[in-house]
Specification:
Helices cover about 50% and strands about 15% of the residues. Strands 7-5-6-4-1-2-3-8 form an 8-stranded mixed sheet, sandwiched between helices. It is elongated, with a radius of gyration of 25 Å. The protein folds into 2 domains: about 230 residues, Spore Coat Polysaccharide Biosynthesis Protein SpsA, Chain A; about 70 residues. By secondary structure, it is of the alpha/beta class. The structure holds uridine-5'-diphosphate and magnesium ion. Uridine-5'-diphosphate binds next to strand 1 and helix 4.
């Protein structure tokens, strides 16, 4: 469904004050506990709210768990995607269906403590559109992950494009207008951290301590993180293409100088010992540079190819709104 139609639908419906969007992939073990903690926090705020659980093609009982939650709690909306689309897309699906005036994005694994939400709300109440939760510590994570994360943030910042806030995930609160702006970006390759930053609007950080996962295991491994980093870089900057160009140029200039020197030497002193090793070295080096450059171009071309297909971002198997979003009653708040 195009974002514009969703927006129109939304402005027509009253909707709750807060929508909490939670992408879930194999979270059956922890979802009950997550919902319990989230409910306590949201009830404490004392304004109307809903939670949109997105089942991203889980292989376990996540969907059944969501259905059970929705049966007994009018605050629960659920969205079941037709298969696993990945976190960024699952999140987008949830955001498309959020009806609130402010939208909270949070992970289901309790690494983002729901108890931080009231502090996000406090800042939003002061008129800030984008309140992002910033990690103070990264408990239970290896130094390799910490170092690679640091390197990545630095790289993204250096290459320009967007300035990503450090140690910040997707856990944040968005105002309705910031969300509507974000939903206008319908690209297939979604690097949400970068897109949040691209949207702009008055933003502010709230510091918190990130807990280790409550249950289940992280579905991120280094290969997926690497791909996410690639997504971030190729989605937001053309720098690698430029680097490839300059690298190619530098090698070509070197080759010309080297060749010229060879010609002059041959003219002055005649043909010396044929330099088989150096010849091989040059050929291999040039071949390598060419392949690498082609690879970089291929990364971008592949993305262009995917975007031109204009496929829908996700397919929905089942969507059930929360009772709150249909009839916002203050006694349910
Ligand atoms: N997630 C998802 N689809 C996926 C992978 C993850 O919806 O394909 C959800 C997952 O259920 C969790 C959130 O995205 O709520 C973050 O996932 P995870 O904890 O595995 O990532 P990490 O905390 O390591 O960034
Ligand atoms: Mg996690």
């Amino acid at each position: 469904m195009p974002a514009s139609r969703l927006t129109a639908m939304r402005s027509g419906s009253p909707g709750p004050v807060f929508s909490v969007v939670v992408p879930c992939y194999n979270e059956a073990l922890g979802l009950e506990e997550f919902h319990r903690r989230l409910s306590v926090v949201m009830q404490g705020i004392g304004r109307s709210w809903e939670v949109v659980y997105v089942n991203d093609g889980s292989a376990d009982e996540t969907l059944a768990c969501m259905v059970a939650l929705r049966a007994r709690d009018p605050h629960v909306a659920l969205l079941n995607l037709s298969r696993n689309f990945g976190k960024e897309i699952a999140l987008t699906a949830g955001l498309d269906h959020a009806t609130g005036q402010a939208i909270v994005v949070i992970d289901a694994d309790l690494q983002d403590p729901p108890e931080v939400i009231p502090r996000l709300v406090e800042v939003w109440d002061q008129g800030i559109d984008m309140v992002y939760a910033q990690r103070r510590e990264r408990e239970g994570e290896t130094w390799v992950k910490k170092t690679t994360a640091t390197l990545f943030y630095r790289l993204m910042q250096q290459l320009g494009g967007v300035r990503l806030p450090r140690n910040t995930g997707d856990f944040r609160l968005l105002s309705r207008r910031a969300l509507d702006a974000l939903l206008q970006l319908r690209e297939t390759h979604r690097f949400m951290k970068g897109m949040f930053a691209w949207v702009g609007f008055p933003s502010q950080a709230v510091l918190y301590d990130r807990a280790p996962r409550h249950a289940g295991s992280s579905s991120w491994n280094y290969w997926r993180l690497w791909n996410l980093a690639l997504e971030g870089i190729t989605g937001f900057t053309l720098m690698p293409l430029k680097i490839a160009t300059y690298l190619g140029l530098a090698v070509a200039v070197f080759a010309i100088v080297f060749g010229g020197q060879l010609i002059i030497r041959t003219l002055l002193f005649g043909n010396q010992v044929p330099g088989y090793p150096s010849l091989m070295a040059v050929i291999l080096f040039l071949g390598g540079v060419q392949l690498m450059t082609l690879g970089v171009i291929g990364e971008y071309l592949g993305r262009v190819f995917n975007e031109t297909k204009q496929r829908p971002l996700y397919l929905i198997e089942r969507a059930a709104p929360s009772a709150i979003s249909v009839t916002p009653r203050e006694d349910l708040a």
